Amino acid sequence: MRWILALSLIFSAAACNAKPAGDVPGKKGAEFVVTSEPVLLTAANGVKVYGSVYRAAKPKALILLFHQAGSSKDEYTTIAPRLAEAGYSSLAIDQRAGGGLYGVNQTAKALGREVRYREARPDMQAALDWAQQQKLPIILWGSSYSSALVFPLAADDPQGIVALLAFSPGEYFDGDPPIAAAAAKLQVPVFVFSTKDEAVDADPIIAALRKNPANVRFVPDHGVHGSSTLVVAKNPQGAQANWDAVLAFLNRVAPGK
Predict the structure, then answer these.
(1) Contact by Cβ (8 Å): 89, 56
(2) Which domains does the chain have, with CATH numbers?
(3) Residue pLDDT, tens place only, 83-98
(4) Do the beta carbons of residue 139 and residue 163 sit within 8 Å?
C-alpha cells in the first residue's frame, strides 16, 4: 500500500495547480449543466457518510462512484456531470479512508482519525444499500484502493448490480479481503483500467474473472492512476480516448430503453 500513498502525495501536489471545474471532454470551454444534490447516509457501524447525487434527465442506470486514497467525492466533480450528460445518474461518496486531494472529505473530517483502507467498506455498502432502493440498474465504479474493494462488495451483495468498473485495481490488502477470489464470483461484465506500469497488479484479478465477451481490459497509451485518468487536467493527452472506452462499455452494459 506504500505506493498508493506515494501516488496520492504526487496527485495532491498536482491538484494544487489544477482547476477541475469545466474540465470535461466533449464540451470545449464549457461545463455540462448538471448540479449535485447532497445526501447523508449512515454506515452499519454508525458513521455518517457524506455524498453527492448527480441526476441524468432520463437515467439508464445509477453509478456508484468511489474515490482513491487521500481523496474524496470531489474526485468526480468533472466526471459525474459527463456521465449524467451521457444518461447515467451517479452517487459519489466521501469514504472514511480519504483526504483532501480534490476537496474536503467530510466523512473523514467528521470521523477525526486515520483508518485503514479496508475500513471504508461499510461506507461503500451504505451507498449500495441506498442505490438498491432507487429502482435503477446499479453500476459500481472504484478508483485505486476502492477499485479493489468493489469486487467483494459486488460478490457479497449482487442485487441490482449490472456491471463494474475498476480503475487501477490490485491485491492491496494482503488477502483481507481477497480481491481475485471475489472477482471469480462475479457474473456481470467488468471493465478494468490500468496504466502500462500497473497492468501487472491487475493481472491476477483479470485472470480470476469468468469468461464474458462483455469484459474489457483497457490499458491506454496515455493514462494516470485511478479515475483521474478521465480528468483532462491530470491526463491531457489521454483523457478523451479513455472516456471513449468507458462510454462504449457503459452503452453496452446499460444501454437504457
Answers:
(1) yes
(2) 2-253 (3.40.50.1820)
(3) 999 999 999 999 999 9
(4) yes
